[in-house]
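2024-03-11 09:14:02 INFO worker-7 job=invfold-0412 stage=load source=structure_tokens
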């Protein structure tokens, strides 16, 4: 069976974890945590980066720092993971879902402005499959209406929009380093802070409400509890695992892009024949090959397709059930406008195996099985 995902491993992880243990400091903000923060800041030209325990907690930090409260509203797509929404629910704010674009499966930027009310406080742009939302338009709307923009870039590490790293365009960016992502620390994430006015508040929030970070920089002679906070620091052993992969980021990225392009080149004839639809990469966007999906005619054909692939040794899986139709989505939010594409497009989409180290033989088998389904 060709697995849908295999967590990335480059070989240096064990050495770095051993060093972390030998340093006798395996809690948060050790040597490897700081090196990861610095690597991301320098590589993506990010103002400040803080490693977190997950992409979910990075999103939670972003919504808390955005000062969201009960009575506020946040605009977001319904085609996303629950963490995007739960980070808003945590603050008491209301979810306002809008439709997606059928080409990229990202939020439809043309639907955002109509959903804005006097209660709207923020927009969350989810970069699905590592392909950028139309950020110029979104940022223009946000500036016009004085709204905060949070980039859910969980899938978008190493992707860019018009030369800028995703996660560095809005007020906050949120990365995930879960085992299913291009770069992994098992469970983990990072918060990118693009406005320095949030730096100190973010450190306090991440450090259980204390000014411990200032203490370790020698800015105060002791640290104490100063505000609300939680424990968002990952273990330095997890950071050690991640650093080994960040140092091989280009190698991993190139390998995944090779697999993505192989799929595209060998399946595009099926798109020309009208049998499937393939991913769209808009002009100005450079993606990271986080996933390769195909769209079938409808839900029934997708179900048959997934079953056929599994019977022939290939794991394929669909993705999100739209949040606005889920019990919690109904409870905590509403859909603004018409659901033209969110549901029907989500029911057509399924993903093919994609991971670092996917062999030439396995790529070829996946393509062969997909072709055989239509023959």
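2024-03-11 09:14:09 INFO worker-7 stage=emit residues=375
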């Amino acid at each position: 069976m060709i697995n849908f995902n295999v967590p990335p491993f480059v070989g240096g992880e064990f050495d770095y974890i051993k060093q972390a243990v030998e340093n006798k400091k395996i809690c948060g903000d050790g040597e490897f945590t700081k090196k990861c923060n610095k690597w991301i800041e320098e590589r993506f030209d990010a103002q400040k980066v803080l490693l977190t325990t997950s992409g979910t907690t990075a999103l939670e930090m972003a919504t808390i720092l955005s000062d969201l409260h009960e009575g506020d509203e946040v605009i977001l797509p319904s085609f996303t993971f629950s963490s995007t929404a739960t980070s808003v629910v945590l603050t008491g704010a209301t979810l306002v879902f809008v439709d997606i674009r059928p080409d990229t499966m990202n939020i439809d930027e043309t639907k955002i402005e109509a959903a804005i009310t006097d209660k709207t406080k923020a927009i969350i742009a989810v970069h699905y499959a590592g392909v950028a939302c139309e950020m110029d338009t979104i940022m223009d709307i946000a500036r016009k209406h004085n709204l905060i923009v949070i980039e859910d870039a969980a899938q978008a590490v190493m992707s860019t929009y018009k030369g800028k790293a995703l996660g560095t365009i809005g007020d906050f960016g949120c990365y995930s380093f879960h085992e299913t992502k291009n770069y992994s620390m098992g469970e983990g994430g990072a918060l990118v802070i693009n406005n320095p006015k949030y730096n100190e508040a973010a450190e306090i929030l991440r450090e259980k409400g204390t000014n411990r970070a200032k203490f370790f920089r020698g800015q105060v002679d002791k640290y104490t509890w100063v505000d609300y906070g939680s424990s968002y620091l990952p273990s330095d052993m997890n950071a050690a695992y991640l650093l080994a992969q960040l140092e091989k980021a280009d190698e991993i990225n190139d390998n995944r892009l090779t697999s993505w392009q192989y799929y595209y080149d060998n399946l595009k004839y099926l798109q020309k024949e009208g049998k499937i639809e393939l991913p769209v990469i808009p002009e100005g966007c450079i993606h990271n090959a986080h996933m390769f999906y195909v769209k079938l005619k409808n839900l029934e054909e997708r179900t048959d397709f997934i079953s056929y692939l599994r019977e022939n040794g290939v794991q394929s899986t669909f993705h999100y059930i739209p949040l606005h139709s889920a019990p919690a989505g109904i409870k905590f939010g509403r859909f603004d406008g018409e659901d033209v594409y969110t549901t029907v497009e989500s029911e057509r989409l399924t993903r093919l195996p994609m991971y670092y180290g996917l062999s030439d033989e396995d790529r070829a088998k996946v393509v062969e099985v997909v072709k055989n389904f239509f023959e």
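2024-03-11 09:14:09 INFO worker-7 stage=report msg="The radius of gyration is 21 Å."
2024-03-11 09:14:10 INFO worker-7 job finished
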